[in-house]
User: What shape does this take?
Amino acid sequence: MIRAYILWALTGMVGQSFAALFVKLALRTGHISSFMVLAIATVMAAASSVAIVVARGELRPAHDQFDWIAVLGACAAGIALTVAVSSLLRSLSLGPATIVMPLYGIFVIGGAALGVLILHEPMTWQKALGLAAAVAGNYLVSS
Assistant: This one.
């Protein structure tokens, strides 16, 4: 039985792969900037996220459950995503996807390393070897 988080991760991987393709296709016209693509995509992602929250019944007054730490974490994630996605789209407007996407994909290694260092998630020699192989693979694919 495949765990739910694996299915979500694979779905995200497919979505990110197609997102890069669609960004390059939009930019190829020469009539839209990477930041306009980002603006349109962000509005769509925000609207979709709000619709999901509403559909799940999570949008309710939460004054008695308000958690500033959670809100600050969400805001920090928003800042990090803004930097990540705007930089990705700008780099896609300047270079080939075959180089940009593997380099951008190194965020996976960075995220795993932060999970170990900050969240104290376990690191096995297999994970360390896999991360090293991923770095090497990204280098080979993008060179």
Q: What stands out?
A: The chain has a mean pLDDT of 88. The radius of gyration is 18 Å. The longest helix spans residues 68-94.
